[in-house]
Amino acid sequence: MQLGKAFFDLQLRFAHRVATVAGMPLAQALLDYTNLYVRWGLGREFDATHPVWQAYLCGLASSCTANQDWTWHFYQGRRAHDIPAPAAASVGCFAYVLAGPGHIRLHFHNSDESGQSPLAASRREHRAQELAALFDLVQRNEPPGVRVLGTSWLYQIEAYRRLFPAGYLATAMPVQRFRNMPLWGQFLDRHGALKPEIAEPFVQRVERAADLQGLTACFALQPLALDAPVEVFWSGHGIAAGTLQGPSNAA
Fold first, then answer.
1. Which of 39, 62, 151, 194 has a C-alpha 20 to 30 A away from that of 12?
2. Contact indicator for 156, 173 with CB cutoff of 8 Å
3. DSSP code of 227?
4. CB within 8 A of 45, min separation 6: which ones?
């Protein structure tokens, strides 16, 4: 999926505002408060001395508009390096990746071809079956006792939450991760375009914010991080019994 220019413009505007209200260099605001470093395919070390990051910074100007054009140009040159971690397994809209010894991380992407929202009530049974099938693969392919991780703004939405067992949802903790897509993804549709109904009010709030705390509060949906033993999914989705039923105790 190619991300649209407006997505990068939005982050540039936010970084300029962070630099202004916090009195920090723009380079620091771009590194710490945007998703750009990851989008350049530089991993998650966030090394300010990385030559590719330094090359990006060298092209910046004092004008936000000029920086938006330069950032878009730089993304086009680095797009081939923006490769997500390979999924260990994928079923419909859900996938999981290995996240270190004894851990897997859940991911969600909109692959629903019905023309409806993937989280519409009419699509709930499809999503529940996909999630159950995915955890059937976890049971077959991963060691016993694996822990399930998830981080996303989607856990703030009831239509998403209702797909998961209560034991998993109970572990949810708010996190502030300005560098990662679990925060910035709320502004994108399935095609990588900006959602104006979410982005425009956000920009208005950003322009009014007077400090970093106020800027943090500009995001309508803060990401939540979850971490639970896989056993809560066996009971929650009936996988241990070999069925593909929906969750029986989802919140």
1. 151
2. no
3. E
4. none
Q: How far apart are CA 152 and CA 183, in angstroms?
A: 7
What DSSP string describes 101-119? TTEEEEEE-----SSS-TT
Query: Cβ distance 178 to 223 under 8 Å?
Result: no
Give residue 73's pLDDT: 96
Helix, strand, coil tally for the chain in percent (to 5): 50, 15, 40
Type of residue found at 195: K
β 147-152/94-98 pair status: unpaired
Report the distance separating Cα 245 and Cα 241, nearest Å.
Answer: 10
Q: Rounded to an integer, what distance in angstroms lies between the CA atom of residue 239 and that of residue 210?
A: 50
Mean pLDDT by 10-residue block, N- to C-terminus, for the chain (251 residues)?
93 97 97 98 96 97 92 96 90 96 95 90 95 94 95 96 96 94 93 94 97 95 96 72 37 30
Distance of CA 171 to the CA centre of its chain: 18
Mapping DSSP to helix (H, G, I), strand (E, B) and coil, where does residue 162 land?
coil
CB burial of 89-110 (b: ≥16 within 10 Å; e: otherwise) equals: bbbbbbbbbebeeebbbbbbbe
pLDDT of residue 238: 57
DSSP-based three-state secondary structure for 149: strand
Give the Cα-Cα-Cα angle 199, 176, 102 (nearest 5 degrees): 120
